[in-house]
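Structure (tokenized):
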């Protein structure tokens, strides 16, 4: 494979992003610990979503660069919601929850969740259970209890993104939003996506190099952002916070297995999970602490 990489323009816990073909496209190059098969699944999911007309970046090909898998995407010109969040410094509208961060996310997720015709496997619950069973920070009894808590929940068949955070929402020059990074996409329950958003806003540890005023302001408005987001989404869909509540602990447990999440954030998630797993819920089983 001819290496057409240009300069590196971004990076995350699982991949580096490079310009490709003189900047007309981008390459998402997986870290060395990512298997080729996982990248192939990600490529196929992105292709399926794009071919279904969902606002997303077009994937062109799956490549191998120096033994590392990568996906070539169209280059989207625009800002992530995170970038706008930082640049605008949490303007007053966003603090009160009627600004871009809340409104755009609620509308975009609602539109995606209306799609029940995208040919992805109905694997959301299976993916979630698999991840929970591999959360080594939890004891076997804790993992079993969390998995069992999913069983009575209704099963739906709607398109879900799986990781709806502001890094994955791009606002294009025409102000139209789109979602990138469909690796965790599946057919299932919108409530799981909403739980992902709530958990992310509530427990995210922002990078230490963010401006101090942004860090402090974000901590002050986390719960208000969640409240306003759910008000907006409920107004559109009828799904309430009470219906999302049972998904919070399972989603938090899943996120313990994500490599790109910092240890400090995982400690917050673990504390939240254990606060919610009372001894009454677990019967008389004594849980044992398992080091990450």
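Design, position by position:
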């Amino acid at each position: 494979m001819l290496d057409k990489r240009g300069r590196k323009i971004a990076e995350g816990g699982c991949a580096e992003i490079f310009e490709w073909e003189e900047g007309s496209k981008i390459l998402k190059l997986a870290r060395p610990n990512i298997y080729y098969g996982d990248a192939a699944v990600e490529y196929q999911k992105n292709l399926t979503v794009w071919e279904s007309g969902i606002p997303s970046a077009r994937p062109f090909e799956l490549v191998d660069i120096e033994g590392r898998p990568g996906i070539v995407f169209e280059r989207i010109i625009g800002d992530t919601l995170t970038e706008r969040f930082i640049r605008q410094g949490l303007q007053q509208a966003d603090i009160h929850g009627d600004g871009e961060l809340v409104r755009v996310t609620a509308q975009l997720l609602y539109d995606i969740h209306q799609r029940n015709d995208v040919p992805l496997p109905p694997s959301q619950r299976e993916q979630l259970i698999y991840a929970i069973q591999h959360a080594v920070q939890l004891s076997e009894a804790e993992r079993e209890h969390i998995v069992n808590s999913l069983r009575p929940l209704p099963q739906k068949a709607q398109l879900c993104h799986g990781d709806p955070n502001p890094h994955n929402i791009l606002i294009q020059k025409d102000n139209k939003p789109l979602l990138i990074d469909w690796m965790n996409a599946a057919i299932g329950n919108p409530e799981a996506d909403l739980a992902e958003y709530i958990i992310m806003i509530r427990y995210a540890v922002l990078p230490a190099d963010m401006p101090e005023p942004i860090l402090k302001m974000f901590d002050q408005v986390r719960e208000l952002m969640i409240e306003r987001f759910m008000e907006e989404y409920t107004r559109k869909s009828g799904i309430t916070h009470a219906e999302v509540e049972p998904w919070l602990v399972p989603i938090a447990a899943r996120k313990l297995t994500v490599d790109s999440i910092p240890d400090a954030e995982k400690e917050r998630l673990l504390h939240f999970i254990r606060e919610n797993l009372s001894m009454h819920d677990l019967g008389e089983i004594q849980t044992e602490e398992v080091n990450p």
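Reviewer-requested clarification: The longest helix spans residues 212-237. The radius of gyration is 19 Å.
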